[in-house]
Amino acid sequence: MKELEDRIRQDGIVREGNVLKVDSFLNHRCDVSLYDKMGAEWARLFAGKQVDKILTIESSGIGIACVASTHFGNVPVVFARKTESKNLDGEQYRTQIRSYTKGRTYEVIVAKRFLERGEHVIILDDFLAMGCALNGLLEICEEAGVIVEGIGIAIEKGFQPGGKALREEGYQVESLAIVQSMDAETGEIEFA
Questions:
Q1: Positions of the chain with pLDDT under 70
Q2: Model-level pTM?
Q3: Which domains, ranges and CATH numbers included, belong to the chain?
Q4: How confident is the model over 96-112, as pLDDT tens digits?
């Protein structure tokens, strides 16, 4: 998606350790107009797929998924929580995920009542690098007995193995911007 690539080039900051900082428009301050265009593009890419719910993970995926939902008939958005809460009741799906950027492992939780066996879901998230978060969500989907119709990613780091592995497993992965390389010294970003 050219508009997203242009925005990454304009406002993205490359840091050491293959970190791409896009907090000025994607995952801290939210450009809702851009989110809307991203949602429309995912709806186009997943046209013809049955979508009963959108699944994401807190926190950066929530805004993106909520805006995208308007392009999928306002289906409910369910997000996996990274923290335990007194408000969580009933049975829950749980899995462990490792955050590449934060360098720590989280237990993520989805209340069982929000994913019903046989439902069709699209998973949306802001980044795909190693694939740890998505693999955790896929474990939850498998345990819940839901059908994953596809995975939508805002920014994929194509030089890391997550996207390739998911595609090899047979998932339709639609990344709106695939970063082929980044240079922390020059700030240059190349797209696939």
A1: 84-89, 100-101
A2: 0.94
A3: 2-80+113-191 (3.40.50.2020)
A4: 988 766 778 889 999 99
Helix (H, G, I), strand (E, B) or coil at 191: strand
Q: Which amino acid is at 17?
A: G
Distances from the Cα of 158 to the Cα of 18, 37, 108, 154, 185, angstroms:
11, 22, 25, 12, 19
CA pair distance 154, 35, nearest whole angstrom: 9
CB 176 within 8 A of CB 22: no
Under a CB-based contact definition with an 8 Å cutoff, are residues 80 and 86 in contact?
A: no
Query: Which residues are annotated binding-site positions for 5-phospho-alpha-D-ribose 1-diphosphate?
Result: 129-133
Binding residues: 20, 27, 129-133, 157
Residue 61's CB is within 10 A of a number of other CB atoms, namely 27
Residue ranges for the known binding site for xanthine are 20, 27, 157
Strands 120-128 and 147-157: parallel
